[in-house]
Amino acid sequence: MAPARVLALSLADRQALIPMAAGYLILMSALGFGLIRLYRPGPSGRDERPDAPRATPPGPVPGATPPDPVPGATPPDPARTGWAALRHVAGTVVGGYLLLMAVVVAYYFGVARVGPGFLESAVSGTALLLGLSAPVFLGLSWLADRRRCS
Amino acid sequence: MARHPLIGYLVWLVLFGAVFAWEGLALARVSGVPTLSDAFRMIMRYPVGRWALFALWLWAGWHFFIRGWHFLLRA
Description:
In chain A, 63% of the residues lie in helices and 0% in strands. Chain A is mainly α.
């Protein structure tokens, strides 16, 4: 059973938590809706998936109308598969973690010493998140690769 | 009943409203307004951009799901 003090949020917690939770739900719903739209074929039957070949480099090009891509001509990017992809993900994870730790340490010693367990929580809490999310991400990516290849 | 300061809600409302208004304009193909996907794609071309976005994601997860909650980190 959850401790009562966890459920009994303070005014400050409610003020931060409720709008952020609502915003998070709205944002994730919008992203989900966008994904559904992206993976649904367009009115002209054109493949609008994100990994579909693009005739123009990504970026805002107002008024540009890319020609229809050739169906089935989507060779897998070697930099996004196998060990190269693993190196790419590992580099991002390690770099992001170290960057966050640098910011947290700089904040703690340079701006505000917010509490005795702050640094420990930052190191262990984010490591816990990584330990939970990285295997799931790698597993799902592997499954997606297998589906794409088969 | 506790009185909630309205200004906090208003600030969050304006911030999220601005983000959704921007995305709406971009999806409506208003010229010169890139979508959030375009912006993130541009940022993620560079390693430092990827690190910064990942650090932001990690901070958000730590802040909302880990910090102050003790069910997994009870000493």
